[in-house]
Structures are given as C-alpha cells and as structure tokens.
Design goal:
Chains A, B: One of its GO terms (molecular function) is proline-tRNA ligase activity. Two copies of one chain form a homodimer. Chain A is of the alpha+beta class. Chain A is built from 15 helices and 31 strands. Chain A is 27% helix and 28% strand. In chain A, strands 3, 7, 8, 9, 10, 11, 12, 21 and 24 form a nine-stranded mixed beta sheet that branches.
Amino acid sequence: MRFSKMYAKTLKETPKDAEVISHQLMLRSGMIKKLASGVYTYLPLGYKALKKVEKITREEMDRAGSQELFMPVLQPAELWKETGRWDAMGPEMMRLKDRHDRDFILGPTHEEVITDIIRNDISSYKSLPLSLYQIQTKFRDERRPRFGLMRGREFLMKDAYSFHANDESLDEEFENMKAAYTRVFERCGLKFRSVEADSGAIGGSGSQEFHVLAESGEDEIIYCNTCGYAANLEKAESVVKEEIVETKEELAEVELKDTPNVAKIDDVCEYFGIPASKTVKAITYMDTLSLKVYMVLQRGDYEINEVKLKNLVDETDLVMLSDADLVAHNLIKGYMGPYNVELGDIILVADESVTKMINHTAGGNKVDTHYVNVNYGRDYTAHIVGDVRSVRAGEGCPRCNEGELESARGIEAGHVFKLGKKYSESMGATYLDENGKTNIMTMGCYGIGVSRTMAAAIEQNNDENGIIWPMSIAPYLVDVIPANIKDADQLGLAEKLYAELNDKNIDTVIDDRKERPGFKFKDADLIGFPIKLIVGRGAKDGLVEVKIRKTNEAFEVKAEEVISFIEELIAKG
Amino acid sequence: MRFSKMYAKTLKETPKDAEVISHQLMLRSGMIKKLASGVYTYLPLGYKALKKVEKITREEMDRAGSQELFMPVLQPAELWKETGRWDAMGPEMMRLKDRHDRDFILGPTHEEVITDIIRNDISSYKSLPLSLYQIQTKFRDERRPRFGLMRGREFLMKDAYSFHANDESLDEEFENMKAAYTRVFERCGLKFRSVEADSGAIGGSGSQEFHVLAESGEDEIIYCNTCGYAANLEKAESVVKEEIVETKEELAEVELKDTPNVAKIDDVCEYFGIPASKTVKAITYMDTLSLKVYMVLQRGDYEINEVKLKNLVDETDLVMLSDADLVAHNLIKGYMGPYNVELGDIILVADESVTKMINHTAGGNKVDTHYVNVNYGRDYTAHIVGDVRSVRAGEGCPRCNEGELESARGIEAGHVFKLGKKYSESMGATYLDENGKTNIMTMGCYGIGVSRTMAAAIEQNNDENGIIWPMSIAPYLVDVIPANIKDADQLGLAEKLYAELNDKNIDTVIDDRKERPGFKFKDADLIGFPIKLIVGRGAKDGLVEVKIRKTNEAFEVKAEEVISFIEELIAKG
C-alpha cells in the first residue's frame, strides 16, 4: 500500500472526548471514527487490525472443532419471551417494530436463537456434543457508552455455544475452549490472565474470564504469586493471615461519645486513636427492582464487594441510597451504626469479619456522635451474615495456602461459561439418549470481544508516540520510508524493497509522500508499524536502516540481506 | 471435515413455503434456516459458500484499488434528514429509538455515512480520487419478503463509494469497477450479463446492472445478438423494423359499435376481425404520493413499461386503479377509451405508437361498446406523449441497427452507478482544487449482493438431485465416500486420500457415517459437492472412482494418481 493513496488521516491533537489511551490513539491514527455515541466506523487501517484479530479467532475456533455459522442481527421477540429475557433485559436491549408492528430486538447475544435452531435440528445423542460459533456484530444500548471500542453500543463479538448430553462432556468442551482462548490471546501477542469469575448458581470452575493486562483496565484481578490461582475481584477469596483483632480483649461497656464533624473512618480513627480495624462502617443500599433496603456493616479497613453482596442477598440491581433516601429512612449520613438504630423494614447485613470484632466503634445514629465498645452478638445481631468483603493484595492464597495474593488491572476480553440447562430447559432443547429416553441438553457459551481485544492490545502496547502493535495484529508490519524522495537512489531502492516485501506477502506500506523524514517517522510511530525500513543516505552504499518500534532498536543492514532480516524479526514475533 | 461431525441436516421433503429453487435447495441441504420472515441464519455449509463469494469480492475490490472499511449498522437520523431521505424512505427503512429517545435507522445503504466521513476527513484534490468499500449486513423491511436469500430483510452486501474531483475521474472508476465486477462474477463461475439500467436524471452509461442468468430470474433483460448492446427491460430501447401500420389508409368516420361481453383485446380482435395492432388499450394508474390519476394509452399488441411511464410522468409510486377507484371515476372496466371520455382531473398519456395509428378501435366508455375508426389528433389528443412501451425480443437493435434483440431472464446481483453530486451537494462534501477554489465532489456507488449472488448461483446451477456448485464457491470441493465403511481396505484408503486432500488445502469432506452408499450419494448431490471420490470394491486393487457432479462423468482412477487428477479438475474449474 502506498501511503500517498492510503486512507490514513492522522491527527496531531488528542480529541477532547477520548478518555482512554486506546480511544485517543485510534482516533489520532485514523483507525476509527465516531458516528454516534458508542457507534464507530472502522477506517481502513483499523479494519485491517480488526480483521487480523478476527482471523486468529476464527482459526483457533476451527482448530478446536467448533463450526462457524452466522445468525441474524434481527431476532423476533417471541424467542426472548420464551426464556423470560424479553422482560428481564432492561433498556440495554435495543428494540424495534417491523412494518407489520411485530416486535424485534437487535441481538446483544444469541442464546435464544441458537437454542431454537438446535431444538429443531438435533434430536439424538448421536449428534452431540456439538459446538457452533459466529463472529457477528452485537448491540447493547449502554447507559453511558465510553472508552471508544472498549464499551460501545455496536461491537464485534465471537460467540460460541456448545450442546452436550452430560456434564462431563460440557467439562471437556470447557477445557477445550479455555485452551483455544489461550491460543487466541497468545497469537495476538498479548499479556493476559485467565481468572475465575462469578458464575451465580453454578459455582466451581463454571466461569472463567480472560483479561488482557493493562494498567488502564477497568477490572481488578487477584492472583497468587505461588500457585495458579487467579480470580476477578468479585469472585476472589483469600486467607487473612494476620488477624489484627485481639481475641483476648475483654468486652467493655458501650458508651456514646460526642464526635463533632467526625464522619469519615479516617477521622474516627484519628479522633479515638484506634486503627480502622476497630471501627465498623455502615452503608445502605436499595434494590431498584425489589425496593428492599439493606444496611451493610463492614470492618473499617475492608471494602464491600457489591457482587458478593448481590449474591448473598439475592438481588440484581443494588444502588446506594441517595441523601434524600437516607433522610426518608431517618438515617444520619456519616453517623449510621447497628447499635440503637430504628431499622424499620431495613435488612441488616454483616460481613463475617464484623462478627469477630471486639469493642468496635460504630455510628451513633445521631449527628456528631459515635458509640465505642460495641460488640456483635451482645449488642446487636444482623439478619444476614456472610462474606461481602473485597480481597486485597497481600492476603494469603485460598488455594495453595502458601502464596501471597497480588493484584493487577485487566480488560475482560474473553469469557467461558457453563450455562447448564437454563436455556435448553426453558426452550425445550432435548435429545433422545441411547435408551430412547428424552433428556434436556446441557450447554456452554464462550465469548471473545473481538473489537475490544483490538482496543485492549493498544491499552497494553503504546508509548508517548503512539501505538506499538504486536506483529500478529498490526495493520501493516513494515513501513518503507525513503528519507529523501527526490533522491533517485533512495527512491529506487525503497521501491525495490517494497516490491520484494509484497512478494513475500508481508503487509507493507511505502511512504511515498513528499514530506520530510521526521514527519513520516511521527506518522509511522503513531500508527504503530512494528518495523520501519528507512532508506536514506546509505542507499548509495547498499545500506538501509531497520528500526523496531517496540524496542526502539536500530540496525544498519545490507540491502540484499534486509528482507531475510525482516522475515526473522517477524518470525520472532 | 467428517460428515459424522458436520452440521448438515438434510431434508427429504421440500419445505412448503419455499417458492424458488435456491430457497428450496438451501433449506433442504441445511445451508440456511429461517428465523423470521426474510431473516435467515447461515448454517455452517451455507456460511462456507457465502464466505467464498465474500472472499472473491474482497480480493477483486482490493485489486481494483478500493480500500475496505466497516461502517456501523446503526445510523443516526440526523444524517438522513440532511439528504431528505429520512422522509423520502418509506416503511422499507427500519427505524428505532435508543434509550435516550434518539432516532436511529438500520442501514439499508451507507451513502449518508460515507459522505459524512469524507466531508470531515478529505479537503484537498490531492486526496482524490478515493474509493472505499465494505462488506456489511443491510436491512430492508420488504413488504413481502420472499424467495429466501433473494429478497430478504437482512442480507449481506458489498457496497463501494468513490469520490472524485471531476467527471472524467468518475468515468474511469466506473470502468474500473465494471471490470472488477466482471472478474468477481467470472471467478464465481457464473454466466452473467452486464446491462444498461435506468439511471434517472443522469442518463447515458451512468448505470449498469450485472445479472446472473437464470430462467427463474425476476428480471427480463434484452440484448442484441450482433453487437454488445444489453439493457434491462425498463431501460431497453429498440427499432421496430416492420411497422404493421399502413400509413396510406384513409381516415374513416368514428362509429360506436355494440360489443357485448367483448372486453379483452383478444376478444376485440376476434370480434372485429382485426389485428391487435389496430386496437388501443387504456390502463389507469394512480400515484400513491401525488394522488394524480393517469389514463395510459398503448397499442393493443404492445406492453406498458411502468418504469418508462414513471420517468415520463415524473412519479415514483404508480399503482393500477382498483375496481372501486374506477367506479369512483366513472370509468367502465374493459371499455375505457380516449374518445368521448369524461376525464375530469385524469391526465391522458399516450405511447408514441398510438399517435401513428390509423382508424384504431378503442373502448366506448359504456358497457359492451367500442368505437372503431378512432384517430389520434383528429378525435383526441393526450396531455403527455412519450415512449412507455416495453421492448420485445425479435425487434431491432437500437445500437448497431443490424442485430435482432433477444431476451433472457436474470437476477440482479450487481449494480454500478454514477451518483454525481446528489449526496456531496446536500451534505457539503467539498474539496479545494489546485487553485484553492472550493468544489463539490462527484460520487459513484457500486453494490454487489453477496448473499443474493450465492442464491443466484444455485438458481443457475441445479438439477432434480440438488445444487451443482461452481468449484470456486462450493462449501467443500470433494466428498470422499467409502462405499462400505466396515471394509478396512476401503476405509483405510478413503482416510488416506482424505488426509492427502487436506494437506493440499482442498476443502474436503469424508462421509464416515454408517449409512448405505446410495444414502450418501443422495446427500452429496443435494449439497452439491463438485467432486465425489468413491472408494469402493476397487480399493483392494488400488482403484477409486471420481464422479463429477456437473457433468455426471465418472472416471476410474488409480489411487496414487487421484490427487493430481482432482487437482487438474479443480484447476479447470
């Protein structure tokens, strides 16, 4: 591709509304263009990278024995009513009516459609197991689309679905898919971790996420520095090695203390001269569907994990109470506590840690007051007790009991999940077994965010000059730059090498624009070509320069050897 | 691929609601599955064929210098309001609102989006010409979706758009695209014709359709048996060599005749003993938007071409008057005519041929009556006179004036079109020329129905047993069939040849199912594998049979030579 003809409109300035680096760099390098909030066009350079991620994904899914199909974007409402998701899905699902006033949705996922196909086509155990996948555009009307391709409203997903006669077969496919996903992210040249994730009712190893590691990642993941244990923060457990609580302390009498303007945990600690581990904080939530209100108690130095909380109280959409809601419930912001409180309908929830504390401080339920020497059991009890604590780096590994947990930031790019019979049961996807008996199929589902993986690759690989594409997904691998386009030697040699690289099927650009070399280098670094092949003054002596984007290494190479030199660089990845 | 694992649910019976052969065969061979009216899933076999058409299209567009991008399905209403198409598009355009109540559409085409991109990114003549394409799902809410993939509501298109500084540049790209399209359809192994099509205001060679020839085609195309002239029926012109009208006949007096139960042209001819060329028929239309009513006069042996009529009267949505509408306008069905008629607001339109007739018959405007010896000019005149006649095979070529026109049926699979400044003007896509002056860009657009081409390939290539895929787009090229799977020699040789074909990257299936050979042959013919490689009793002597689906030829070949034999067959195409 000739740069002079290439659709690549690079920008010097960072667009204002781009918050994360991948979004900024993709806009600046002319890879994507916003059409509407959360809706982007992939311009030629961006689409080439996207297609490479797509191709790697397709090859590894094929290799894993999954068969590709292509399901529609438009899905009739009837199928979603069968599974109950027509009502359960909120405004994130995009809905429309056709000219005959029939309800349709734009597929955010395809469990209903694939299960409908399978229940019609498959009837015997002989056809199982079966794994099918597609690479298709998905739609999700995010409340606040942001971060460019990371959280858009229209995005590219690989979604796979497997059907089985029994759990052992599902377990096998689950492992098969984990291996395929590992190959996908490895081939994309990314640093990643697979972590245990929350799987609701199924539990065990039924849900694993693949996170591309990047400091800008939205998610925190926890992993053991000794064994292979890794989980996302919602799912992570730990062993707290060093309990600060002194179990031998005698229970003291509760006292109400005046604490003027001492509302935050830090202030309470300072005021009383105690560690946060001797305080209890109370946070109130309401579920927007059930409308139940919960006061949740946590040890002052621990955080509440809202996913664990949702699972514990069996709610789906918890939000913190607003100031107005607090007033309506006679609760005093900053001074709430479990002792001497008028709960009314409020359900009191305590993290396990709270029940083990001795003589803790708690809000006085009046402005500017706190109780000291409060004790769970003696002074109050909660309606529900359980683990709602966020794990922290430095705590002990719950798996090997030896290692220490570390923490990293990640971008969720893949997810493998044992669905079980949720959809096959409600939609009647059954098969006849060896004995002619009707059984319900067991299912798995497996997703890779193709466009998100592309963005995550940039989040992980960039510097102040631009993108640093991994070789395998770079739109072009080599940028041939004749330093002085008016010099016939330089231009001639550059054109010759460009032709040779094309003959080797290496995706190559020649920067034939009438611009200064510095200008060209800037564009090359912004777009992120892994290799620059600079044909400068050395051309007359048969010498060229190879510069590696990632390491910034530069090599002077003989022109006749440079093609094989580049081939080796590419082979090394 | 092993047939035992392959997702290929073939049906013996033809599904009831499938009217055309491609639809029937794709359902029966398990290539597609209906999800909703006009909305289909591509099952693995069908998707493999579709991807091959897609790949050929992509390669030829790349070769033609067009750059691939990928625009969203969701398009904001604002862009369509700029061009006026938000109002102009009827219920065929699918519309929806997002969670913030903003209007969006599901792209039926992308002129607005691409023009928006270009007006923002391109400002100089130096960046022109520019050609961009995408292969993307389109949405069109057909009033009556039918014919399977031929006229669906969600379908795959390749659409390209070009931008130019002047008409000469557009002309060049137009020819470049025509050549690319020719290569696409040639490589797909299809018999096709490119024909001139109606291009509204632009005229000339500004619009060409590519039709895949098939007797079941919806469109009639006209071509000269001598020169290269070809046009669709709407656009076709002709020279009528032998005028039946005897221009020397004297004008006679108009007479009203009783013609009981003589309402049709054939009956009129029989009743009066005259040829149809001496009669005039009158047909009434109303435009559903302007609500104007037209009475159109045509020579009895000619047909009215509704596209020519629309262009002549400048209307967009003409429909024939219903019986009730006729009554409301005091018109008598079967006995309408231009003489002694109370037209009121009705606009009278005459085909040119009518104005040259002498002493013609026409409806009497009363039940069971006709006038004879009516003459245009003397007895009546029309408000509008023009060519609204459908050309017929057998007439003379208007281009070379020597050949005779022939007719064929086709399926429109491609269209190249000079858009001119329609979108660039309304949306302000301008550039600065060499002199720094602002000019409006000129545009072209170019479409290929990718899914429709796949269906058209089947319409053109099938027999009573099933599909006959062209080599280049067959989901698999070879079906290796061990005749007796329990015979170790046969199975062993079949597996060996299957592995060798895979090593050669030839898409191959081995039918390892425990079924009788006849059963396997039926499936193979239905799915349409171009080559069957049958490993039967000859296996023990090192002989196998190769059967060609298209010609039904069978060859006995030595096992060690069969791979190269098959390679030669494939190379021949």
